[in-house]
Amino acid sequence: MVMLHEKLAAFQSLHCLGYVSSFPQQKERATCFLLNLKAIASGEKWFPMKGKVLCRVEDWQGTIHLGQLITVSGKIILPHKKSNAGEVDFYNYMVEKGISFELLSKDKFFLHG
């Protein structure tokens, strides 16, 4: 997982193609869901990729469904390791769930089919 984080840290924004693998939930102004990756792209070039991404799409008014193929574009947020004794260890939580990174999107995604 560390090697993937190091590779992803070079990208400011990313396009992720995959299947919605959790029921979307509304949290404040965002729709949150897990995406099973099939490919990622930065710019025009796509690369095959496996893993899970925690997607947070802000200000989106549409609907997405479990199992739907979508492309989400946004900013990568890598989990940080806890720095205080009482702090929640979000990094370990993500590792345990098999989630590679979080993607923050501002209503930028495309539904396939």
UniProtKB/TrEMBL annotation:
Name of the protein: DUF4131 domain-containing protein
Domain DUF4131, first and last residues per copy: 17-106
Stored InterPro entries: DUF4131
Pfam family, one: DUF4131
